[in-house]
Design goal:
Layout (H helix, E strand, L loop, with lengths): L1 E5 L2 E3 L5 E8 L2 E12 L6 E7 L4 E3 L7 E6 L4 E6 L8 E11 L4 E5 L3 E5 L2
Parallel strand pairs: 2-11
Antiparallel strand pairs: 1-3, 3-8, 4-5, 4-9, 5-6, 7-8, 9-10, 9-11
Length: 119
């Protein structure tokens, strides 16, 4: 079981990026899926997550700017990031709380994807 993240890059302040995270392998169900980030010299923080029933949870500083969504059939989560600010610069990590076909529960992390907001 693994997560593959994509979509990071360099964007100017006020711009937008869309991150994707796809789960692969023997994934039976994904309870919660979402994104964390870690800026240089700071601790990793939750950015946005969404439960299997579609209930989102956002970091206060991204509310109204970021939107998380899921396609359960594709085992994929998306993070639409609008009105980006320099303080959003960080490595973004995908995370999923999931079960395989043996119903073993895993907390899985994807590789980080760098988001840089700079003029």
């Amino acid at each position: 079981v693994q997560l593959q993240a994509s979509g990071g890059g360099l964007v100017q302040p006020g711009g937008s990026l869309r991150l994707s995270c796809e789960a692969s392998g023997s994934v039976y169900s994904i309870n919660r899926m979402g994104w964390y980030r870690q800026a240089p010299g700071k601790e990793r923080e939750l950015v946005a997550t969404m439960t299997i029933s579609g209930i989102p949870n956002y970091l206060d500083s991204v509310k109204g700017r970021f939107t998380i969504s899921r396609d359960n059939a594709k085992k994929t989560a998306y993070l639409q990031m609008d009105s980006l600010k320099p303080e959003d610069t960080a490595v973004y990590y995908c995370n999923a709380d999931l079960r395989d076909y043996g119903l073993t529960r895993y907390d899985v992390w994807g590789q980080g994807t760098l988001v840089t907001v700079s003029s």
